[in-house]
């Protein structure tokens, strides 16, 4: 139904051991949701990534393969059902034939954590297409809870075409005989003939993880998903996280800010209220003191999750603003209020801009 086809890869039938426990490999429960599966996969893939395990490479790479197979099966509802019914063997039989695609190519960018690729830097100068940088707008809700999104992009890919083209052009000195004993040396452009190529748009589905607490400007890099280069490698696709404005919360670092309008009666007499947070949980607020316009309270641990440590949360700042009654009060009510509040006139005149 969905574009699962891209994620199918050859399980290498002969070599796969039958009957691995994919749930155990991912460290999840049988009832795990697709989102939980992706999360678990993503976390373990980071830990087990071959680039990170220089020591026992063989073991790490085997674990990485197991992990890939587990994810590949359980993230696909149809395959998962098959697997739940009769184990890995069924899935292999039914799902084979994907054709040796790199299972990790289209997942979650390049794990964006400083590994991958730094091994072969500067070895040779390969022409590279331009990077494509794209803003990926995400909601605060997604950044609070984390999410996985699929983005479809049309990737221009070079395909062989009829005919030839000039390539590897360079300047060379050639000698021409003008007459007996007379030669002329001159520079000439010399090219090779290469098979022709044409640009074809290919639809690609990329799975992007929006991690909890990511900040604006952080990038997910997808290697070789950028502009192609006729004589070299394609550039990368870089997705840059941008937070869409939210109607209730504003984020500053890991802290959240919100405003609440209360009535004058509540401001004087106290109140209780719930603020619905980004994941739907309620933040309960109780005040029995007088709340003046601009008063601000802090709720610890109700801000955004920290990107480095998702168990740490910032602060939630709630600023109150007080709505005064708009209708004219009767003389009688006015008298009653004066009596009730028994507050003398103050009428202090001061320079508020300087804080005197
Ligand atoms: C909302 O709260 C902020 C502080 O968090 C404050 O600067 C701003 O004036 C408040 N807005 C209103 C309309 O009260």
UniProtKB/TrEMBL annotation:
Q: Give the region (Disordered) as residue ranges.
A: 211-238
Membrane-crossing ranges are none
Superkingdom as given in the UniProt entry: Eukaryota
Q: Which keywords belong to this entry?
A: Glycoprotein, Signal
What would you give as a GO molecular function for this chain, any one?
unfolded protein binding
Show which residues constitute the signal peptide.
Answer: 1-18
SUPFAM superfamilies given for it? Chaperone J-domain, HSP40/DnaJ peptide-binding domain
- Specify residue ranges for compositional bias: Basic and acidic residues: 218-238
Question: Record's Gene Ontology CC terms?
Answer: endoplasmic reticulum
What InterPro entries has UniProt attached to this entry? DnaJ-B11-like, DnaJ_C, DnaJ_domain, DnaJ_domain_CS, HSP40/DnaJ_pept-bd, J_dom_sf
Q: Pfam families given for it?
A: DnaJ (PF00226), DnaJ_C (PF01556)
Q: Name one GO biological process term.
A: protein folding
Start and end residues of each J domain: 21-87
Name of the protein described by the UniProt record: EOG090X07WF
- Gene name for this UniProt entry: EOG090X07WF
